Structure formats: C-alpha cells, structure tokens
Amino acid sequence: MVEVPAPERDPHHEVDLIPVNSIDEYWQKPFNVNNVDRFNIIQSTVFHDAFNTKKNLLICAPTGAGKTNIALLTILEILKSNFC
Question: CA Rg, the chain, in Å?
Fold first, then answer.
C-alpha cells in the first residue's frame, strides 16, 4: 500500500467560502435542495475551475468532504456552456 501524506496547511492561506447565491439563480437550484448556502473549503478552492472552465480535475478527499457538489459544479458548467 502507498500512502501519500497530506501537505501541511499554510496558516496564512485562508480560503473565502463562496456563497451559493453568488452564481446565477438558475444554477443555484441543485444546491438549494440540500440547504447549502456556502460552498465548503474544498469546493470554494476549486470553484472557479469546476464551474467556469473545462479543466480536468482530480479531487481526492475523504468521504463527506464535498466531492459530489464539485462534480455537480462541473456538470453545471457543461450544461451552461453547451445549452445556454
């Protein structure tokens, strides 16, 4: 088994949590189902790349860290760029 240790966090690097209402109301609907008002740290960190670009992402995080909402952001990016 290979274990990759998590990098040490830089105490000076703060992540501003992105409010869900900062995106167009139409794209907020999937997050309103679960009463999400702000994206968490990992979601806020990758938000721009997930929701506004076609970059490939590899997200490695523990269960419950918010990977599903990141996947949803990438799906919404595809929908808005291809069908709107």
Answer: 14
d(CA 51, CA 72): 9
Query: Six-digit token pair at 16?
Result: 């501003």
Q: List pLDDT tens digits, range 19-78.
A: 999 999 999 999 988 788 999 999 999 999 999 999 999 999 999 999 999 999 999 999
CA distance 60 to 69: 13
Phi-psi category of residue 70: left, alpha or beta, with phi > 0 → left and psi -120 to 50 → alpha:
alpha
Cα separation, 55 vs 67, in Å, equals: 16
- Where in the chain are the domains? 20-83
How far separated are the first and last CA of the chain, in Å rounded? 45
Closest CA to 27 of 10, 47, 41: 47
